[in-house]
């Protein structure tokens, strides 16, 4: 059972993707090495240099785009934490027992958002999004009723903060997507395979030089793997963790969230 559980985990998918990338690039390199013919070194050198340069540029651009997307997701998480803290402060303007009920809805919303960032599957993420949306709607309806009974500027300001809470969640959903399209990935893989083939084609056939041939395909595979992991939101090894949301929740309540991430940079793939 443990074996099949590991195979169905996101870690197994990540490892399989890395193995497939590395295997494909290594096969192309050794195929190019076996296809080398005498008298074609000059032509192959020109083509190899051009392909290698273009491949490096494409990988560099892809890495930059994926990192920018990761930074946008981090900023979205910070924005949600700040919106929740502001909403918590403004709910103090509400009379009892509406204040206590509103703050409980707000804590439940933050808990759902924390689990969303910690969830490692797209299906689970969609469930936590829906649950948080329901909490936010209930919070809005609660304060809307209070505004109808006592339409004071203080209550209206609370409505504004609740609206900002929903907007922050929508902004997170707007950036919670892959930044590199499938067509771009096809071009990246094509150039990486071609560069590996030409690297093998240009590689000398002296004895003991086969190990040197491994460097380019292996490094390229690791680079592409890292770009994929950064570009996939919420499912890769390199993920945005809800550190600011957890810190804000701990500050507001004075309690530790069960199962919260206590070490910076740690990650959990599935909800325990």
From TrEMBL:
A Pfam family per the record: Bestrophin-like
Q: What is the name attached to this protein's record?
A: DUF4239 domain-containing protein
Q: Which InterPro entries match?
A: DUF4239 (IPR025333)
Lineage, top-rank taxon, reads Bacteria
| UniProt keyword terms in alphabetical order | Membrane, Transmembrane, Transmembrane helix
On whether Lyase is a keyword of this UniProt record, the answer is no
Organism whose genome encodes this protein: Yokenella regensburgei
**Keyword set includes Zinc-finger:** no
Organism lineage reads as: Bacteria, Pseudomonadati, Pseudomonadota, Gammaproteobacteria, Enterobacterales
Membrane-traversing stretches: 15-32, 44-65, 182-200, 212-230
């Amino acid at each position: 059972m443990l074996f099949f559980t590991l195979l169905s985990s996101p870690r197994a998918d990540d490892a399989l993707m890395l193995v497939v990338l590395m295997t494909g690039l290594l096969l192309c390199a050794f195929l190019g090495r076996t296809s080398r013919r005498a008298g074609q070194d000059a032509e192959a050198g020109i083509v190899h240099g051009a392909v290698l340069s273009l491949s490096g540029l494409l990988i560099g651009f892809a890495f930059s785009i994926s990192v920018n997307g990761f930074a946008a997701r981090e900023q979205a998480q910070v924005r949600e934490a700040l919106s929740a803290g502001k909403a918590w402060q403004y709910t103090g303007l509400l009379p009892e027992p509406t204040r206590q009920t509103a703050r409980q809805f707000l804590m439940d919303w933050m808990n759902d958002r924390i689990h969303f960032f910690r969830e490692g599957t797209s299906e689970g993420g969609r469930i936590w999004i829906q649950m948080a949306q329901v909490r936010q709607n209930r919070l809005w309806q609660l304060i809307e009723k209070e505004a109808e009974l006592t339409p004071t500027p203080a209550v209206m300001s609370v409505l504004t903060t609740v609206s900002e809470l929903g907007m922050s969640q929508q902004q997170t959903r707007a950036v919670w997507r892959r930044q590199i399209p499938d067509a771009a990935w096809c071009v990246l893989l094509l150039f990486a395979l071609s560069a590996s083939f030409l690297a093998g084609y240009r590689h000398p056939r002296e004895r003991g030089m086969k190990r040197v041939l491994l460097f380019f395909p292996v490094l390229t595979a690791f680079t592409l793997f890292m770009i994929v992991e950064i570009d996939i939101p919420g499912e890769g090894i390199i993920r945005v963790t809800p550190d600011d949301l957890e810190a804000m929740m701990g500050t507001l309540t004075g309690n530790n969230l069960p199962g919260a991430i206590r070490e910076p940079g740690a990650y959990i793939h599935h909800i325990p």
